[in-house]
């Protein structure tokens, strides 16, 4: 068997449920390319999948390879692919699992070109967080100047981009983060940063037109009280929002869709300095199980990225 290194989930559970091992090397099916992965982004979904939180919504056959976004080089092109060639530098979400492997078969339609000036670690930090931030902010309608927007969980990957887009649109931006992350979130353009470990956000945020919730749970439940009369909550974290919308209120569950053109434009904005993309930590492949667990227990600013070359 031709095999590649991969991070495999063997059973649902804690950090010990994922192991670095070998899996059969993939081949490129119709519409797919094989990508030699150079870097991959760590996401909250990794530990949610590991723990089994999404097993009902997305049943998996275990063992399976974790990881949902990557950056690398096209190594082979499958039947029917026209836009990509061997040697192209690409990045994108998989639209499924399997990014934590040395070689991955990816739908070509998901992949955007990595600008020359961006290295693979920087590229791997972008696909999900940056595009999902844009899409979730505009999910209930295009955002515009003067809106009062609250980003719940603003120091992470998605939240950090959402703060910048909302600020650039001319919105009044409210944002929550733990105390040690407050200065960072303010530096992204938030007008009011609320230290979630010291203050109740309800004391500062009111008459909010749009809440983007990346946290869920109690934070989401409390967010209804700060909405303007015709305000809306868009949750990226909790599909359960749809079962808990108070009468007369508007709440939406958001799911991202691949958008390679927007991803490429965002990457150009990062290169040109119009947008900040924060890589908070770079880890080795064998450090992935611990990095995924850290994302659950001690979120840091920005993204964690695994560099396959270390
Ligand atoms: N539906 C979709 O299409 C989609 C796409 C991408 C991501 N997501 C989801 O969106 C969420 C965010 O993703 P991400 O990649 O940005 O994750 P992340 O980088 O881990 O950031 C999440 C942030 O939430 C904050 N947080 C955690 N607990 C909190 C609490 N109790 N109160 C306030 N803030 C809290 C943390 O910041 P502090 O430490 O500063 O509080 C953390 O930085 C995840 O749930 C992920 O699964 C969904």
UniProtKB/TrEMBL annotation:
Entry superkingdom: Bacteria
Residues covered by the Enoyl reductase (ER) domain: 13-306
SMART domains: PKS_ER
Identification of the protein by name: NADP-dependent oxidoreductase
């Amino acid at each position: 068997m031709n095999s590649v290194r991969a991070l495999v989930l063997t059973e649902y559970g804690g950090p010990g449920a994922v192991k670095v091992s070998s899996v059969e090397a993939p081949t490129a099916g119709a519409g797919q390319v094989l990508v030699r992965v150079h870097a991959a982004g760590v996401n909250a979904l990794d530990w949610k999948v590991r723990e089994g939180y999404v097993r009902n919504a997305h049943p998996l056959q275990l063992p399976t390879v974790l990881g949902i976004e990557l950056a690398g080089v096209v190594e082979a092109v499958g039947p029917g692919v026209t836009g990509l060639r061997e040697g192209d530098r690409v990045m994108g979400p998989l639209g499924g699992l399997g990014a934590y492997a040395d070689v991955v078969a990816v739908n070509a339609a998901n992949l955007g070109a990595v600008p020359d000036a961006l290295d693979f670690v920087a590229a791997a930090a972008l696909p999900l967080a940056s595009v999902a931030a844009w899409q979730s902010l505009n999910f209930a309608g295009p955002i515009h100047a003067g809106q009062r927007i609250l980003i719940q969980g603003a120091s992470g990957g998605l939240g950090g981009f959402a703060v910048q887009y909302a600020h650039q649109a001319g919105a009044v931006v409210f944002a929550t983060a733990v105390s040690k992350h407050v200065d960072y979130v303010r530096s992204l353009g938030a007008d009011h940063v609320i230290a979630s470990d010291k203050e109740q956000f309800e004391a500062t945020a009111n008459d909010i037109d749009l809440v983007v919730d990346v946290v869920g749970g109690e934070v989401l439940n409390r967010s209804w009280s700060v909405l303007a009369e015709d305000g809306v909550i868009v949750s990226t974290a909790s599909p359960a929002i749809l079962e808990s919308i108070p009468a007369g209120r508007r709440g939406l569950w958001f799911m991202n869709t691949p958008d390679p053109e927007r991803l490429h434009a965002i990457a150009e904005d990062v290169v040109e300095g119009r947008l900040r993309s924060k890589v908070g930590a770079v880890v080795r492949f064998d450090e992935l199980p611990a990095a995924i667990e850290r994302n659950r227990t001690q979120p840091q600013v920005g993204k964690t990225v695994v560099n396959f070359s270390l």
